[in-house]
Amino acid sequence: MPHRIAKQIHNEILDKDNFLLVAHQNPDGDAASAVSAFSQMLEQMGKKYTCFCKTSVSDQFEYLKNIHLFTSNPEVWKQKLDAVIVFDSGDLPYAGIDTFIENAKDTMIINIDHHASNIHFGHHNLVRDTLSSTVEVLYNYFLVNKIKINADMATSLLTGLITDTDNFSNGATSKEALSMASYLVNKGAKFKKIHDYIVLDKNIAILQLWGIVLNRLEVHEKTNIVYTYIKQDDLLKCGVTEEEIGGLSNMMNHLKEGNAIFVFKEKTDGNIKASTRTTREDTDLSKVAQLFGGGGHKKAAGFEVPGPIDKAIEHVWETIEKSELIG
Ligand SMILES: [Mn+2]
């Protein structure tokens, strides 16, 4: 029962004093916002906390309260911690903290998430894969535990909701998600500010890169998956950074054709990262991602395979065809 777990976790928090809040590496709006909102609750309660992320957090989220407190300094793991709270992460390697946890074996782990592929790695697991976002899980947690949601907290929660529903356009946009949005706007969430930072985030160079990538669209016939790829060279040519290329697979999800969309991206280490999206009810991409050690949701998932890019793509098709999960 999710309500019982939310109350159990809150009792642990009332009882303890010093927390480490973790957003997964390369945090998206959901992860960054969840930490921001939760840190504000801890402040209300007079608790101590540190916000940790293994990588840097995008400037795009600079308007979120307490976002400037994020550190990637591993030294923070050496303090006496009463609990580590991990947000929006299906497992500890995805969060980027598996090695830190190995050295902090006695520390309580609290797992707050909505990924279908979540492996329940915590001592407490508040995982609700029917909800749109981790911030929606958190919103329910706040209501169940009668936490006051102030305007800054509402702005954080609404940010995660807008990013994970792709601006209220993807399959996660439930009636509960919409009613949560309305509640948060009533509490003073700054809708326009979020829109300015989150939706108006493209520049000409990014759209030129999208042009190259969209030109390469192809259909893999046996699985009817529509796909394209981005190489490191493309980024250099257009002057676009890794961080800036998010959003392409979400945008491609507006396509009517095909069973799914796959975007393959060559990373600096030579590995190939695949972002996958579908709008079809009969396709479960979290299962597909798990074939390659990745994870995610039914309608949006990701995984990594070794390069080079043409070999990687070939390997992906072979594996998916064998699995018969799509097509
Ligand atoms: Mn999420």
Automatic annotation (TrEMBL):
InterPro entries referenced in this protein's UniProt entry, alphabetically: DDH_dom, DHH_sf, DHHA1_dom, Oligoribo/pAp-PDE_c-di-AMP_PDE
DDH domain ranges (all copies): 19-160
Record domain DHHA1: where: 224-321
Gene Ontology MF: a single term: nucleic acid binding
Any Pfam family matching the protein: DHH
Domain of life: Bacteria
Full protein name: Uncharacterized protein
Species classification: Bacteria, Candidatus Magasanikiibacteriota
